Amino acid sequence: SSSSSSSLSSSIRKTGLGSSAALTTSLAVAIITSFNGVDELDKPEEKIECIHLIAQICHASAQNKIGSGFDVASCIYGSGRYRRFKPERLSVVTDMIENYNSPLSLVDTSLSIPVPAPVFVPASAFLSPSLRLDFQFTPWCLPACVRILLGDVEGGSATPALVSSVLRWKQTYPEAERIFADLNAANEEFRLGLDELAEISRLNLTAYTRLLQQYSTRPIAELRGVEDELGLAPLLTRIRDSFLRIRMYLRSIGGGEIPVEPAEQTSLLDLTMGVEGVICAGVPGAGGYDAIFALTIGSLEPLEQIWESHNVCALPLTETVHRGIDISQS
């Protein structure tokens, strides 16, 4: 019943770490593969694309088409750079499904309640040019010796409501376009800095590792003015500075009235960025009270201790060899 489902959803604490996308995607993949839903497609990349589109439809339906789709794309394709599709593209797909003339109609007459006949849409229909999502996804990974730590905060924000507030503000506030342009520029500078760090590691891993080990025992802010043969110290401070600007622009969204980076998170993030070896710390996804993250070249132990003292559960992560979904038969 609706009351029991509401009670159940309210009793499950939201983490803000993409768990809804992971659950939706894995369930969609399980159902599709169990019924051989993409077997008619010859190319593996087409099968993945079809599964990705269906998972996006399912998750968008659950979030009223508010989300960017990044977390679903990550579940399918792995770590990467993502540029979202136009939201109206999903409406085209859902309209196709609703109006599709199914050649089959299955209704279980033994049930005492009316059951609508399922709609059977061939996988190939999802790959027509008019239905393909216009997103961009480029595989990407962290530079060598850089680790990510996620923090599960004892709180929670309703992502659709938070994003809706940001979108309303963006449409009505005159300075919103400039703020988002500045935020995008800072994001790009941050990404380019990490890419440069990765390139240096590929060219001279031995010296790169040695220098990062030296710097891992110092706050990154203290590296300002330090010079080395690879230019790592200036690069690390530049990456840190670009992320500080990202956080500044996020806090300015909504004129400070929308808690993208709430004050409670700000104090903990500032404390985190002062820890030895921490390059940056911020709020993931849509922001709010859900979670925090940090990128570090140092030991995880000091971070874990600080976060534990603030009732934040630290979740150290590593990238797996297999990127994205892994479909296996048991």
Break the fold down into its secondary structure elements and pairings:
Blueprint: H1 2-11, H2 19-34, H3 44-62, H4 70-77, E1 80-83, H5 88-99, E2 136-139, E3 147-153, H6 159-172, H7 176-203, H8 205-215, H9 232-252, H10 263-273, E4 278-282, E5 291-296, H11 301-309, E6 312-317
Antiparallel strand pairs: 1-2, 3-5, 3-6, 4-5
What can you see in these coordinates?
The protein has 330 residues and is an alpha+beta fold. Helix content is 48%, strand content 10%. The protein contains eleven helices and six strands. The protein has helices spanning 2-11, 19-34, 44-62, 70-77, 88-99, 159-172, 176-203, 205-215, 232-252, 263-273, 301-309; strands at 80-83, 136-139, 147-153, 278-282, 291-296, 312-317. The strands form two sheets. It has a four-stranded antiparallel β-sheet with strand order 4-5-3-6. α7 packs across α8 (205-215). The chain is globular and about 65 Å long. The two termini are 34 Å apart.
Average predicted confidence as pLDDT? 82
Count up the helices. Answer: 11
What gross morphology would you assign?
Answer: globular
Sheet with most strands: 4 strands, antiparallel
Q: What's the order of the H and E elements?
A: HHHHEHEEHHHHHEEHE
Percent of sequence in beta strands = 5-15%
Q: Assembly state here?
A: single chain
Structural class: alpha+beta
Provide the descriptors you would attach to this structure in a database record.
single chain, 330 residues, alpha+beta, 4-stranded antiparallel beta sheet, 48% helix
